[in-house]
């Protein structure tokens, strides 16, 4: 009521109504009487009349803001037409629901079905916007309905005049498309578009659908490839045959399982079988299968190519045979170490790229790597000195540098350290032998210094203690330079004399030759 401001000028309406005197807050001042009841009533009536007229002239103006359909909110029930339309829609939906039930009853699960589609009052597209929930339900349970050839609905549109909405309506289709994204493979990320009122154009949706399908196919292919290659890398049929033969011949009792799968090899545990006249088989064995896939071995060329022991053979070999050479190399190196009394696996047999050796550990449980075991400070110190002596023996008696020595390739078993993984070990006069040794020394020195062994030499001291070489540099850079100069000297000697120096030894030890 807008008349409050002018109320004071209005003629007095006589004594106030009876309730005024009973009012607990006392009688209001006379100025507050805005206007007579009759005035109010007539004003209200005029307003109502106008509204009614307006809605009669433009029946759908109110709803048009939200689209031509009744949306849950803003339902204006002031118009009879609107009410009638709502009732009609409700009826139509119920009618269609009944129709669907009948359709289902008639068809059962027969392969050929009769469609009552044409008899529906409300086409699925129409119902979409009339009730948001129906939209979700429908699309979830029958997402690709639109892709099937459907008969033209009786009424492919709703609304009238300029507000007509067909099944091709952008908004309606857009919402539908968004909902259909839920039917993509679960691993296909569609973001949270499904949860909001996102409208995907047909073009975008189709592109997405295509992408989802090809992603699905791609991941299936990848998975297949991965499975295939693992089987191939670890034990290909030829390797399996080799292993079967070992069991069949009685050399091995059973192969129990895999201990480790590394980049270059797979190690299995096996129980030893019967001894032959020339061989005693250990009760438990480790089988190291060198992978026959070449990728991983490419960067290891330098270890073997420059190893004079394999020099003239290298060029003639195909990649497959080079892998066998790794196994062969590990066998030779282990034998040398065994002969020098260094704790390491004992070689049982070598067949192609499969090396059988004694198992370090017990009851199928391999000994822990030094990096995985927690030693008392006493044991730590003991382990350090043991390794120092092993490195010296390896260098002097076996004429070898481990070249991959670290807490990863040392096992703790029976209260002592065992060296494993010597396929890459080289002789000290290998063109990079001293560099490899220096790297080994750095690993060992760092491990024990971090492990709290106060007596542990630093990497340069350790290098000198192992090699006996007298390198005077007091910093790492110069030290490395001197090492490389020595290696160069050796290479020059090979060039000039066609034969390598026996050792680098500079302290008057007799040169150590092997083979
Ligand atoms: P890789 O080149 O894959 O590192 P390794 O020779 O180091 O090959 O063997 C991998 C792992 O298998 C080792 O870390 C060790 O745990 C286990 N292993 C290898 N040989 C033996 C063995 N003789 N006894 C017990 N475990 C072994
Ligand atoms: Mn290893």
From TrEMBL:
Q: Which domain of life is it from?
A: Eukaryota
GO cellular component annotations, sorted alphabetically? cytoplasm
In terms of CDD domains, this protein maps to: RIO3_euk
Please state what class of enzyme this protein is: transferase
Residue ranges annotated as compositionally biased, kind Basic and acidic residues, are: 137-148
Q: Which SMART domains match?
A: RIO
Organism in which the protein naturally occurs:
Drymodes brunneopygia
Give the protein name, as stated in the record: Serine/threonine-protein kinase RIO3
Note the InterPro entries from the entry. Answer: Kinase-like_dom_sf, RIO-type_Ser/Thr_kinase, RIO_dom, RIO_kinase, RIO_kinase_CS, Ser/Thr_kinase_Rio3
All copies of the RIO kinase domain together span: 224-468
What Pfam families does UniProt report for this protein, alphabetically?
A: RIO1 (PF01163)
As cofactor, the record names: Mg(2+)
């Amino acid at each position: 009521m807008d008349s409050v401001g002018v109320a004071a000028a209005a003629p007095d309406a006589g004594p106030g109504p009876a309730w005024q005197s009973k009012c607990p807050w006392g009688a209001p001042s006379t100025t507050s009487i805005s206007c007579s009841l009759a005035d109010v009533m007539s004003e209200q009536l005029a307003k109502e009349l106008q509204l009614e007229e307006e809605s009669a002239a433009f029946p759908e103006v109110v709803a048009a803001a939200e689209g031509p359909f009744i949306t849950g909110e803003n339902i204006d029930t002031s118009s009879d037409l609107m009410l009638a339309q709502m009732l009609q829609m409700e009826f139509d939906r119920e009618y269609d629901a009944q129709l669907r039930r009948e359709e289902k009853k008639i068809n059962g699960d027969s392969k050929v079905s009769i469609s009552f589609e044409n008899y529906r009052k409300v086409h699925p597209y129409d119902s979409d916007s009339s009730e948001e929930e129906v939209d979700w339900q429908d699309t979830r349970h029958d997402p690709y309905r639109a892709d099937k050839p459907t008969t033209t609905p009786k009424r492919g549109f709703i609304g009238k005049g300029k507000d007509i909405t067909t099944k091709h309506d952008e908004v309606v289709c857009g919402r539908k498309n968004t909902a259909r994204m839920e039917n993509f493979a679960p691993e296909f990320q569609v973001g949270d578009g499904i949860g909001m009122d996102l409208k995907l154009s047909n073009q975008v949706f189709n592109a997405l659908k295509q992408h989802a399908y090809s992603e699905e196919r791609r991941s299936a292919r990848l998975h297949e490839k991965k499975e295939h290659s693992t089987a191939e890398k670890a034990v290909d049929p030829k390797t399996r045959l080799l292993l079967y033969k070992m069991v069949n011949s009685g050399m091995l009792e059973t192969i129990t399982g895999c201990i480790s799968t590394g980049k270059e090899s797979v190690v299995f545990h096996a129980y030893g079988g019967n001894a032959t006249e020339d061989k005693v088989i250990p009760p438990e064995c480790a089988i190291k299968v060198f992978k026959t896939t070449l990728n991983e071995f490419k960067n290891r060329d330098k270890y073997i190519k420059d190893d004079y022991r394999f020099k003239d053979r290298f060029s003639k070999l195909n990649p497959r045979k080079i892998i066998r050479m790794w196994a062969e190399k590990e066998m030779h190196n282990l034998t040398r170490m065994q002969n020098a009394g260094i704790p390491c696996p004992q070689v049982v047999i070598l067949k192609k790229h499969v090396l059988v050796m004694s198992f370090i550990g017990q009851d199928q449980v391999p000994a822990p790597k030094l990096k995985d075991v927690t030693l008392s400070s006493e044991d730590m110190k003991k382990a350090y000195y043991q390794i120092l002596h092993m490195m010296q023996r390896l260098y002097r008696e076996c004429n070898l540098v481990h070249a991959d020595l670290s807490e990863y390739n040392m096992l703790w078993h029976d209260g002592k350290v065992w060296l494993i993984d010597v396929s890459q070990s080289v002789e000290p006069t290998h063109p990079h032998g001293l560099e490899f040794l220096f790297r080994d020394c750095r690993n060992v020195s760092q491990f024990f210094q971090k492990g709290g062994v106060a007596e542990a030499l630093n990497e340069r001291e350790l290098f000198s203690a192992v090699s006996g070489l007298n390198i005077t540099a007091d910093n790492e850079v110069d030290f490395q330079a001197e090492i490389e100069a020595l290696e160069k000297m050796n290479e020059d000697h090979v060039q000039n004399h066609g034969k390598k120096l026996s050792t680098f030894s500079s302290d008057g030890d007799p040169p150590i030759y092997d083979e």
